[in-house]
Amino acid sequence: MKALVYQGPGLKSLEDRPKPEIQAPGDAIVRILKTTICGTDLHILKGDVPTCTPGRILGHEGVGVVEAVGAGVTAFRPGDHVLISCISSCGKCENCRRGMYSHCVTGGWILGNTIDGTQAEYVRIPHADTSLYPVPPGVDEEALVMLSDILPTGFECGVLNGKVAPGSTVAIVGAGPIGLATLLTAQFYSPSQIILIDLDDGRLEVARRFGATHTINSTDGKAAEAVLALTAGRGVDVSIEAVGIPATFVLCQDIVAPGGTIANIGVHGHPADLHLERLWSQNIAITTRLVDTVSTPMLLKTVQSRKVDPARLITHRFRLDQVLDAYDTFGRAAETRALKVIIEA
User: 30 and 135 in contact (C-beta within 8 Å)?
Assistant: First the structure.
Protein backbone atom coordinates (compact mmCIF):
# COMPACT_ATOMS: atom_id res chain seq x y z
CA MET A 1 0.00 0.00 0.00
CA LYS A 2 1.02 3.65 -0.38
CA ALA A 3 1.83 5.52 2.83
CA LEU A 4 3.35 8.83 3.96
CA VAL A 5 6.36 8.02 6.14
CA TYR A 6 8.21 10.26 8.61
CA GLN A 7 11.97 9.98 8.05
CA GLY A 8 13.23 12.33 10.76
CA PRO A 9 13.01 16.09 11.39
CA GLY A 10 12.17 17.85 8.13
CA LEU A 11 12.03 14.60 6.15
CA LYS A 12 9.10 12.59 4.80
CA SER A 13 8.41 10.35 1.80
CA LEU A 14 5.60 8.52 0.02
CA GLU A 15 6.48 4.83 0.13
CA ASP A 16 5.16 1.34 -0.56
CA ARG A 17 4.49 -0.40 2.77
CA PRO A 18 2.98 -3.79 3.64
CA LYS A 19 -0.74 -3.74 4.33
CA PRO A 20 -1.33 -3.94 8.11
CA GLU A 21 -2.63 -7.15 9.67
CA ILE A 22 -4.67 -8.02 12.76
CA GLN A 23 -2.30 -8.27 15.75
CA ALA A 24 -4.72 -8.50 18.67
CA PRO A 25 -8.33 -9.67 19.10
CA GLY A 26 -9.55 -6.06 19.51
CA ASP A 27 -7.98 -4.80 16.27
CA ALA A 28 -9.72 -3.69 13.11
CA ILE A 29 -8.16 -3.06 9.71
CA VAL A 30 -9.74 0.00 8.08
CA ARG A 31 -9.44 0.95 4.42
CA ILE A 32 -8.98 4.70 4.40
CA LEU A 33 -11.40 6.72 2.29
CA LYS A 34 -10.41 10.23 3.41
CA THR A 35 -7.77 11.56 5.76
CA THR A 36 -6.12 14.90 6.46
CA ILE A 37 -3.01 16.62 7.81
CA CYS A 38 -2.94 18.07 11.32
CA GLY A 39 -0.82 20.85 12.76
CA THR A 40 0.55 18.16 15.07
CA ASP A 41 1.99 16.40 12.00
CA LEU A 42 3.91 19.59 11.27
CA HIS A 43 5.16 19.63 14.86
CA ILE A 44 6.39 16.05 14.37
CA LEU A 45 8.25 17.12 11.24
CA LYS A 46 9.84 19.96 13.21
CA GLY A 47 11.14 17.43 15.75
CA ASP A 48 8.80 18.60 18.54
CA VAL A 49 7.36 15.12 19.25
CA PRO A 50 10.21 12.75 20.23
CA THR A 51 7.85 9.79 20.74
CA CYS A 52 7.36 9.68 16.96
CA THR A 53 10.44 8.00 15.49
CA PRO A 54 11.70 7.76 11.89
CA GLY A 55 9.91 5.12 9.84
CA ARG A 56 6.47 5.90 11.25
CA ILE A 57 3.45 6.31 8.96
CA LEU A 58 1.92 9.64 9.94
CA GLY A 59 -1.71 10.66 10.42
CA HIS A 60 -4.34 10.22 13.12
CA GLU A 61 -7.56 11.35 11.41
CA GLY A 62 -9.88 9.89 8.85
CA VAL A 63 -12.96 8.00 7.76
CA GLY A 64 -12.91 4.60 6.12
CA VAL A 65 -14.46 1.18 5.64
CA VAL A 66 -13.80 -1.75 7.96
CA GLU A 67 -11.87 -4.39 6.03
CA ALA A 68 -11.33 -7.00 8.76
CA VAL A 69 -11.84 -7.36 12.51
CA GLY A 70 -10.23 -9.40 15.26
CA ALA A 71 -12.09 -12.09 17.15
CA GLY A 72 -12.76 -9.72 20.06
CA VAL A 73 -14.47 -6.97 18.06
CA THR A 74 -18.25 -6.97 18.55
CA ALA A 75 -19.42 -3.48 17.52
CA PHE A 76 -18.18 -3.46 13.91
CA ARG A 77 -17.98 -5.80 10.98
CA PRO A 78 -16.43 -5.68 7.50
CA GLY A 79 -18.14 -3.15 5.25
CA ASP A 80 -19.05 -0.70 8.01
CA HIS A 81 -18.22 2.95 7.34
CA VAL A 82 -16.45 4.39 10.38
CA LEU A 83 -14.99 7.56 11.81
CA ILE A 84 -11.51 7.01 13.23
CA SER A 85 -10.81 8.73 16.53
CA CYS A 86 -7.37 10.30 16.94
CA ILE A 87 -7.38 8.74 20.43
CA SER A 88 -7.39 4.96 20.92
CA SER A 89 -8.97 3.80 24.17
CA CYS A 90 -9.42 0.40 25.78
CA GLY A 91 -12.37 1.67 27.84
CA LYS A 92 -11.29 -0.47 30.81
CA CYS A 93 -8.14 0.94 32.40
CA GLU A 94 -8.24 3.39 35.31
CA ASN A 95 -7.71 6.43 33.08
CA CYS A 96 -10.38 5.38 30.58
CA ARG A 97 -12.85 4.84 33.43
CA ARG A 98 -12.17 8.45 34.45
CA GLY A 99 -13.00 9.57 30.90
CA MET A 100 -9.35 10.42 30.28
CA TYR A 101 -8.97 8.34 27.13
CA SER A 102 -5.92 10.32 26.03
CA HIS A 103 -3.99 8.57 28.81
CA CYS A 104 -5.28 5.05 28.19
CA VAL A 105 -2.47 2.77 29.38
CA THR A 106 -2.51 0.78 26.13
CA GLY A 107 -3.80 3.51 23.83
CA GLY A 108 -4.07 7.30 23.89
CA TRP A 109 -2.58 9.27 21.03
CA ILE A 110 -0.74 6.40 19.39
CA LEU A 111 -1.90 6.62 15.73
CA GLY A 112 0.77 8.33 13.65
CA ASN A 113 2.86 8.72 16.79
CA THR A 114 3.93 5.41 18.33
CA ILE A 115 2.12 3.14 15.84
CA ASP A 116 1.46 3.59 12.12
CA GLY A 117 -1.25 6.07 11.25
CA THR A 118 -3.91 6.99 8.74
CA GLN A 119 -2.05 8.75 5.91
CA ALA A 120 -2.06 5.45 4.01
CA GLU A 121 -4.41 3.18 2.14
CA TYR A 122 -5.02 1.01 5.22
CA VAL A 123 -4.57 1.39 8.97
CA ARG A 124 -4.72 -0.95 11.96
CA ILE A 125 -6.96 0.38 14.75
CA PRO A 126 -6.37 -1.13 18.22
CA HIS A 127 -9.34 -1.26 20.64
CA ALA A 128 -11.64 -0.90 17.64
CA ASP A 129 -14.90 -1.19 19.61
CA THR A 130 -14.07 1.94 21.62
CA SER A 131 -11.91 3.82 19.10
CA LEU A 132 -14.17 3.84 16.04
CA TYR A 133 -17.59 5.43 15.54
CA PRO A 134 -20.22 4.38 12.99
CA VAL A 135 -20.80 6.98 10.29
CA PRO A 136 -24.42 8.19 10.57
CA PRO A 137 -26.43 7.74 7.36
CA GLY A 138 -26.55 10.74 5.07
CA VAL A 139 -23.71 12.65 6.76
CA ASP A 140 -20.91 14.16 4.63
CA GLU A 141 -17.88 11.93 5.28
CA GLU A 142 -15.46 14.75 4.43
CA ALA A 143 -17.03 16.83 7.18
CA LEU A 144 -16.68 13.93 9.61
CA VAL A 145 -12.90 13.89 9.13
CA MET A 146 -12.93 17.10 11.19
CA LEU A 147 -14.42 15.09 14.08
CA SER A 148 -11.42 12.78 14.30
CA ASP A 149 -9.40 15.47 16.05
CA ILE A 150 -9.80 19.22 15.56
CA LEU A 151 -13.46 19.67 16.55
CA PRO A 152 -13.22 17.65 19.79
CA THR A 153 -9.80 19.19 20.47
CA GLY A 154 -11.07 22.75 20.12
CA PHE A 155 -14.17 21.95 22.15
CA GLU A 156 -12.60 19.93 24.97
CA CYS A 157 -9.19 21.60 25.36
CA GLY A 158 -10.39 25.13 24.63
CA VAL A 159 -14.11 25.57 25.30
CA LEU A 160 -14.67 23.08 28.14
CA ASN A 161 -11.30 23.56 29.84
CA GLY A 162 -11.65 27.32 29.44
CA LYS A 163 -15.10 27.23 31.07
CA VAL A 164 -16.69 29.32 28.32
CA ALA A 165 -20.11 30.41 29.60
CA PRO A 166 -23.06 32.51 28.41
CA GLY A 167 -22.08 36.17 28.36
CA SER A 168 -18.38 35.50 28.91
CA THR A 169 -15.60 37.18 26.93
CA VAL A 170 -13.27 34.88 25.00
CA ALA A 171 -10.05 35.47 23.08
CA ILE A 172 -8.61 32.75 20.84
CA VAL A 173 -4.96 33.25 19.94
CA GLY A 174 -4.45 31.57 16.58
CA ALA A 175 -6.97 31.43 13.72
CA GLY A 176 -5.69 28.20 12.20
CA PRO A 177 -7.87 25.08 11.96
CA ILE A 178 -7.80 24.41 15.72
CA GLY A 179 -8.55 28.02 16.60
CA LEU A 180 -11.43 28.09 14.12
CA ALA A 181 -12.79 24.78 15.43
CA THR A 182 -12.68 26.33 18.90
CA LEU A 183 -14.55 29.35 17.56
CA LEU A 184 -17.29 27.17 16.04
CA THR A 185 -17.83 25.17 19.23
CA ALA A 186 -17.51 28.12 21.64
CA GLN A 187 -20.72 29.45 20.12
CA PHE A 188 -22.63 26.55 21.73
CA TYR A 189 -22.38 28.61 24.96
CA SER A 190 -23.28 32.09 23.63
CA PRO A 191 -20.32 34.13 24.89
CA SER A 192 -20.78 37.90 24.51
CA GLN A 193 -17.44 38.40 22.72
CA ILE A 194 -15.20 36.04 20.78
CA ILE A 195 -11.99 37.79 19.77
CA LEU A 196 -9.72 36.05 17.25
CA ILE A 197 -6.04 37.03 17.15
CA ASP A 198 -3.70 36.05 14.31
CA LEU A 199 -0.97 37.37 12.03
CA ASP A 200 -2.89 36.55 8.85
CA ASP A 201 -5.68 38.79 7.56
CA GLY A 202 -7.05 36.00 5.38
CA ARG A 203 -7.63 33.73 8.35
CA LEU A 204 -9.10 36.59 10.34
CA GLU A 205 -11.60 37.18 7.54
CA VAL A 206 -12.58 33.50 7.77
CA ALA A 207 -12.95 33.91 11.53
CA ARG A 208 -15.40 36.78 11.01
CA ARG A 209 -17.44 34.61 8.64
CA PHE A 210 -17.43 31.83 11.25
CA GLY A 211 -18.82 34.08 13.99
CA ALA A 212 -15.97 36.02 15.62
CA THR A 213 -17.25 39.29 17.07
CA HIS A 214 -13.84 40.97 16.74
CA THR A 215 -10.54 40.16 15.03
CA ILE A 216 -7.06 41.52 15.75
CA ASN A 217 -3.99 41.29 13.54
CA SER A 218 -1.10 40.94 16.00
CA THR A 219 1.68 41.79 13.54
CA ASP A 220 2.32 45.15 15.22
CA GLY A 221 2.85 43.56 18.63
CA LYS A 222 -0.07 45.49 20.14
CA ALA A 223 -2.66 42.72 20.37
CA ALA A 224 -2.84 42.90 24.16
CA GLU A 225 -3.60 46.63 24.07
CA ALA A 226 -6.31 46.00 21.47
CA VAL A 227 -7.95 43.30 23.62
CA LEU A 228 -7.90 45.54 26.68
CA ALA A 229 -9.51 48.31 24.63
CA LEU A 230 -12.31 45.93 23.58
CA THR A 231 -12.93 44.84 27.18
CA ALA A 232 -12.88 48.22 28.95
CA GLY A 233 -9.39 47.50 30.29
CA ARG A 234 -10.41 44.30 32.08
CA GLY A 235 -9.17 41.55 29.78
CA VAL A 236 -11.04 38.40 28.80
CA ASP A 237 -12.62 35.73 30.96
CA VAL A 238 -11.10 33.01 28.77
CA SER A 239 -7.88 33.22 26.76
CA ILE A 240 -7.23 30.19 24.57
CA GLU A 241 -3.78 29.37 23.18
CA ALA A 242 -4.19 27.62 19.82
CA VAL A 243 -0.73 27.94 18.25
CA GLY A 244 1.91 26.26 20.40
CA ILE A 245 4.75 28.80 20.57
CA PRO A 246 6.10 30.74 23.59
CA ALA A 247 4.96 34.17 22.35
CA THR A 248 1.30 33.19 22.05
CA PHE A 249 1.27 31.63 25.52
CA VAL A 250 2.66 34.87 26.94
CA LEU A 251 0.01 36.85 25.03
CA CYS A 252 -2.68 34.73 26.69
CA GLN A 253 -1.24 35.76 30.06
CA ASP A 254 -1.26 39.41 29.03
CA ILE A 255 -4.97 39.46 28.17
CA VAL A 256 -6.62 37.26 30.81
CA ALA A 257 -8.83 39.07 33.33
CA PRO A 258 -8.67 38.54 37.09
CA GLY A 259 -10.51 35.33 37.87
CA GLY A 260 -10.14 34.15 34.28
CA THR A 261 -8.82 30.97 32.68
CA ILE A 262 -5.95 30.36 30.26
CA ALA A 263 -6.71 27.20 28.27
CA ASN A 264 -3.74 25.83 26.37
CA ILE A 265 -4.42 23.78 23.24
CA GLY A 266 -1.19 24.26 21.25
CA VAL A 267 1.54 21.61 21.00
CA HIS A 268 4.61 23.21 22.56
CA GLY A 269 8.04 22.02 21.51
CA HIS A 270 9.97 24.59 23.56
CA PRO A 271 9.75 26.08 27.06
CA ALA A 272 7.43 29.05 27.51
CA ASP A 273 7.56 31.77 30.16
CA LEU A 274 4.99 31.84 32.94
CA HIS A 275 4.86 35.33 34.45
CA LEU A 276 3.92 34.48 38.01
CA GLU A 277 5.39 37.79 39.16
CA ARG A 278 2.26 39.34 37.59
CA LEU A 279 -0.26 36.53 37.85
CA TRP A 280 0.24 35.08 41.34
CA SER A 281 -2.45 37.33 42.81
CA GLN A 282 -4.92 37.33 39.91
CA ASN A 283 -7.01 34.25 40.75
CA ILE A 284 -6.49 32.74 37.32
CA ALA A 285 -6.49 29.08 36.29
CA ILE A 286 -4.20 27.57 33.64
CA THR A 287 -5.32 24.35 31.99
CA THR A 288 -3.56 21.89 29.70
CA ARG A 289 -5.08 18.88 27.99
CA LEU A 290 -4.64 16.30 25.31
CA VAL A 291 -8.00 15.72 23.67
CA ASP A 292 -9.89 12.74 25.12
CA THR A 293 -12.61 12.63 22.41
CA VAL A 294 -15.29 12.08 25.08
CA SER A 295 -17.32 14.71 23.22
CA THR A 296 -17.25 12.93 19.85
CA PRO A 297 -20.72 11.30 20.16
CA MET A 298 -22.26 14.68 21.01
CA LEU A 299 -20.40 16.41 18.19
CA LEU A 300 -21.57 13.73 15.75
CA LYS A 301 -25.16 14.62 16.68
CA THR A 302 -24.54 18.35 16.18
CA VAL A 303 -23.16 17.67 12.70
CA GLN A 304 -25.98 15.27 11.87
CA SER A 305 -28.56 17.90 12.92
CA ARG A 306 -26.67 20.64 11.02
CA LYS A 307 -26.06 22.70 14.18
CA VAL A 308 -22.42 22.96 13.16
CA ASP A 309 -20.83 22.43 9.74
CA PRO A 310 -17.17 21.43 10.02
CA ALA A 311 -16.92 21.07 6.23
CA ARG A 312 -16.49 24.86 6.19
CA LEU A 313 -12.92 24.25 7.38
CA ILE A 314 -11.97 22.32 4.22
CA THR A 315 -10.12 24.39 1.62
CA HIS A 316 -8.11 21.93 -0.52
CA ARG A 317 -8.43 18.36 -1.76
CA PHE A 318 -5.72 15.93 -2.92
CA ARG A 319 -5.29 12.26 -3.76
CA LEU A 320 -2.98 10.12 -1.63
CA ASP A 321 -0.39 10.08 -4.41
CA GLN A 322 -0.34 13.89 -4.09
CA VAL A 323 0.25 13.85 -0.33
CA LEU A 324 3.63 15.59 -0.60
CA ASP A 325 1.91 18.44 -2.46
CA ALA A 326 -0.75 18.45 0.26
CA TYR A 327 1.94 18.89 2.93
CA ASP A 328 3.52 21.69 0.94
CA THR A 329 0.16 23.45 0.62
CA PHE A 330 -0.72 22.96 4.29
CA GLY A 331 2.74 24.01 5.45
CA ARG A 332 2.55 27.28 3.50
CA ALA A 333 -0.92 28.18 4.71
CA ALA A 334 -0.23 31.92 4.79
CA GLU A 335 0.42 31.84 1.03
CA THR A 336 -2.03 29.11 -0.01
CA ARG A 337 -4.90 30.11 2.35
CA ALA A 338 -5.11 26.47 3.42
CA LEU A 339 -7.13 25.48 6.47
CA LYS A 340 -7.85 21.74 6.33
CA VAL A 341 -6.83 19.62 3.35
CA ILE A 342 -8.67 16.41 2.48
CA ILE A 343 -6.58 13.53 1.16
CA GLU A 344 -8.55 10.86 -0.68
CA ALA A 345 -7.05 7.41 -0.48
Answer: no
